[in-house]
């Protein structure tokens, strides 16, 4: 709406400028016609003889001399008055958001009157739609190596000796769980991270670095990885002998 109004205002102001140039020469039309016929550079001479801009002089030169002689002052005055009224209205619209809001509301009401009809589609209440991807409930075994590589394999009671590791690495934590249960990572600074079972990379490779799945703060290391079931209580204790009980739902974190 603002762009449309600015565009129209530019067109109105351009037309006003041209008409004001015609109005300026109207009282001396015979001399103007003579100047155009006799001058080697009529555009420059018009701009010098009358205070005209280049645009106004070009407009006058584009009018045929016969039409120039018949220019009607009353018609020009009427068009100028009409355009100045429109110019004032357009400037008012661009002056502030309140005027723009009124115009938008007016145009909406006009469109409703012109194009509005009864609703053709029904609006019915529907159950909420879940965007969560369904996860297949199946057994899985999660392995975390001492150098921090994690992976998941389908099934339980797997022979961890058959797992491959990088040179100098070995199994550290092995947890049997299900794909629908989260795996909790506890670091040495007391933070808990939650990994969805389905998000842990699988396959027969060496896995991925755990740090690609969680963001450990500087100086923190993984202290433990464990599975906690919904509704269960767990004891969390430090090396100093102090501990506390915590429910599984209180361990769940959205922190990566």
Automatic annotation (TrEMBL):
Q: Which GO terms describe its biological process?
A: DNA topological change
- Give start and end of each Topo IIA-type catalytic domain: 2-108
Q: Where is the signal peptide?
A: none
Please state what class of enzyme this protein is.
isomerase
Keyword Acetylation included in the entry's annotation: no
Instruction: Output one GO MF annotation.
Output: DNA topoisomerase type II (double strand cut, ATP-hydrolyzing) activity
What Gene Ontology terms describe where this protein resides (cellular component)? cytoplasm; DNA topoisomerase type II (double strand cut, ATP-hydrolyzing) complex
Q: What keywords tag this UniProt record?
A: Cell membrane, DNA-binding, Isomerase, Membrane, Topoisomerase
An example of a Pfam family matching this protein is: DNA_topoisoIV
Give the enzyme's EC designation.
Answer: 5.6.2.2
Reaction(s) this enzyme catalyzes, per UniProt = ATP-dependent breakage, passage and rejoining of double-stranded DNA
Q: Which SUPFAM superfamilies match?
A: GyrA/ParC C-terminal domain-like, Type II DNA topoisomerase
Name listed for the protein in its UniProt record: DNA topoisomerase (ATP-hydrolyzing)
| Species name | mine drainage metagenome
